[in-house]
Amino acid sequence: MRALEFGKTVNQKGAMLEWVKKIQQEKKVEELVDKELGSNFCRIEVGEMLQVALLCTQYLPAHRPKMSEVVRMLEGDGLAEKWAASHSHCNPTMSLSHPKNNNKSTTSASKHDESGPNRSSSMFGTTMDEDDDEHSLDSYAMELSGPR
Description:
Shape: globular
Keywords: ATP-binding, Kinase, Nucleotide-binding, Receptor, Transferase
Distance between the termini: 34 Å
Number of strands: 0
Structural class: mainly alpha
Radius of gyration: 16 Å
Region (Disordered): 83-148
Number of helices: 4
Number of domains: 1
Organism: Salix koriyanagi
InterPro entries: CR_Ser/Thr_kinase (IPR052059), Kinase-like_dom_sf (IPR011009)
Helix content: 25-40%
Order of helices and strands: HHHH
Protein name: LRR RECEPTOR-LIKE SERINE/THREONINE-PROTEIN KINASE-RELATED
């Protein structure tokens, strides 16, 4: 189903967000990439970008990352930690850690190795529960715009 077709659904509020969450959960991120790119994209980078985007859609504005945090996460700094923190209430046993020699990290999540195509991604070790961000479809949901 094309993303633009979601605007035509009867119960459209939150439909696209739920579709994207499902794609992330099923690890089918290639469905979000422009087909004209073919296979000319990094699946890990798309997955990381998707995680950042989903962090930005959390129900409470205070739980959403600041733009400076978004920039840092897209540059490869702190995404695993932020992702783990945002999902710790849903699945406390979930671990995003990958074996690394990173002495800076004191959490179970490790910073990504930026060395190339063999780097690991926290995306492939996680799943999102269907009730994550359970208020995302709430008719009284807070709007994304406005000051924090």
